[in-house]
UniProtKB/TrEMBL annotation:
Domain HTH araC/xylS-type: 164-264
Signal peptide interval: none
SMART domains cross-referenced by the UniProt entry: HTH_ARAC
Keyword entries, A-Z: DNA-binding, Transcription, Transcription regulation
PROSITE patterns linked to this entry: HTH_ARAC_FAMILY_1, HTH_ARAC_FAMILY_2
Organism of provenance: Pseudoalteromonas luteoviolacea S4060-1
Name of the protein in its database record: HTH araC/xylS-type domain-containing protein
Recorded superkingdom: Bacteria
InterPro entries associated with the record: AraC_XylS_family_regulators (IPR050204), DUF6597 (IPR046532), HTH_AraC (IPR018060), HTH_AraC-typ_CS (IPR018062)
A GO MF label: sequence-specific DNA binding
């Protein structure tokens, strides 16, 4: 079981929030590598009467989460997602590969954007039984093993080529600061603009234009952590036309201005 120690992005006020919880991430086994991107487990133990609200700007992947007596499917998240932690508890999560679940979803992926479904019946496994099994495991290795056993039948439905192509396209957006438009992505990937728009709509439910804006904000959050008082640096570094465009993205996607975000660091 290999730990995922890659840099975490899209976590709001990351340094401020990290003391409140413990997060572990693991890569799937090779057999599930085209279905699952990672397993994630987070625990917290907060003083009585206190709470921590963690806000994230997640990747557009689907997730399956388990808490005691609770199992939920989370569709792609389009804006900020927040979760309130209190007392002592934890979550076990599965982050699916982009497009991996398209063949088994009863509705088009856009139907599930910003949607939570309890005990979904389309994942070809007994989630109630899996939830009970996970609650009886006392270590990460046993929990991940139980998840892999239960989810392996889903691998038969995955269209591997589509998943790998979609993953590569989104990785290009995430890792290239010079991709600022869909035209830039089309040029660098060799995939036409129309095909990009069609594939993203079918398998992610969000447009490539939106994801380019979203991942620029991921970069903005990381830069603010490094230099919290320099908005002009963000505009230049992320190649925004001007400060107004940066503020507009913050408001539309994060629900606040850069100044308000900095004030809360």
């Amino acid at each position: 079981m290999e730990k995922n120690n890659q840099l975490i992005s899209g976590v709001l006020h990351k340094a401020k929030g990290e003391p409140n919880y413990t997060l572990r991430r693991y890569f799937p086994s090779p057999q599930l590598a085209n279905l699952v991107e990672q397993y994630w487990l987070v625990d917290w133990d907060l003083p009585v009467g206190s709470q921590h609200v963690q806000k994230n700007l997640p990747d557009p992947n689907c997730h399956l989460t388990f808490l005691p007596n609770k199992c939920e499917f989370l569709g792609p998240v389009s804006k900020v997602y927040d979760y309130t932690m209190h007392g002592q508890n934890g979550i076990i999560g599965v982050k699916f590969k982009l497009g991996a679940l398209t063949p088994v979803l009863p509705e088009p992926i856009e139907y599930y954007i910003d949607t939570v479904i309890s005990l979904p019946n389309f994942l070809h496994c007994d989630l109630a039984s899996l939830s009970k099994t996970l609650s009886q495991k006392d270590n990460d290795k046993a929990r991940v093993h139980a998840l892999e056993q239960a989810l392996e039948p889903l691998c038969d439905y995955v269209k591997v080529h589509h998943v790998q192509q979609l993953t590569a396209l989104v990785e290009q957006i995430k890792n290239n600061d010079d991709i600022c438009t869909v035209e830039d992505l089309a040029q660098q990937s060799g995939v036409s603009k129309r095909t990009l728009q069609r594939q993203f709509k079918k398998n992610i439910g969000l447009s490539p234009k939106y994801l380019i804006r979203k991942y620029r904000l991921h970069n903005a959050l990381a830069l603010i952590d490094q230099q919290p008082n320099d908005i002009h640096h963000l505009v230049n570094k992320l190649d925004y036309v001007d400060q107004a465009h940066l503020i507009k993205d913050f408001k539309n996607i994060l629900g606040m201005t850069p100044g308000a975000y900095i004030d809360d660091i």
